[in-house]
Amino acid sequence: MDGTILELTLFLLAAFAGALVAGLSGFAFGFVVSAIWLHILTPLQTATLIIAFGLMVQGYSVWKLRDALDWRKLWPFVLGGVGRSSRRRHPHLGEPCPCALGHRCAPGALLSLCVAAACNPKG
Questions:
Q1: CA pair distance 89, 80, nearest whole angstrom
Q2: Mean pLDDT, the chain, whole residue set
Q3: Angle at the Cα of 37 (from 35 to 40), degrees rounded to 5?
Q4: Is the pTM of this model over 0.70?
Q5: Which residues of 61-88 are buried (b: 16+ CB within 10 A; e: fewer)?
Q6: pLDDT score recorded for residue 85
Q7: How far apart are CA 123 and CA 76, in angstroms?
Q8: Assign residue 28 a region: left if phi > 0, alpha if psi is -120 to 50, beta otherwise?
Q9: CA nearest 117: which of 94, 98, 95?
Q10: If you write DSSP's letter for every residue of 27-45 in order, what string do you get?
């Protein structure tokens, strides 16, 4: 990107369109902006900016809705995202617990667990 007026305008319009779509749908920021940014930026720059701006857009959404979050209902999702690792120095880094469970369970047992969880009437 040379920084011409046209490229800066395209960059800002793509960022606005991506933020608008992410705000309305909750996802797809990267899809929208990469359609334009890849024409004016390198893939490395595009990927880095998608990660940075995506975190800002989603972080802003969570910040605005923080009063609506019910932490009692949210704890299973937080627990599912907690990583486990065999490394002693960084035990919080690693794959999420459900992924580790998938590697160690029999496929039939894991399928039964998923079907039971999906059919649970209480959610």
A1: 21
A2: 82
A3: 125
A4: no
A5: eeeeeeeeeeeeeeeeeeeeeeeeeeee
A6: 54
A7: 11
A8: left
A9: 98
A10: --HHHHHHHHHHHHS-HHH
pLDDT value of position 74 = 82
Domain map (residue ranges) of the chain: 5-67, 71-118
User: What digits encode the pLDDT tens for the residues 73-84?
Assistant: 887 777 666 665
CB atoms inside a 10 Å sphere around CB 18? 24
Distance of CA 93 to the CA centre of its chain: 17
Longest dimension (CA), the chain: 58
Q: Hey, what are 51's tokens?
A: 């990660």
Question: CA 56, 58, 61, 62 torsion: positive or negative?
Answer: negative
Instruction: State the Cα–Cα distance between residues 76 and 60, nearest whole angstrom.
Output: 23
Enter the tokens of residue 5.
Answer: 């007026």
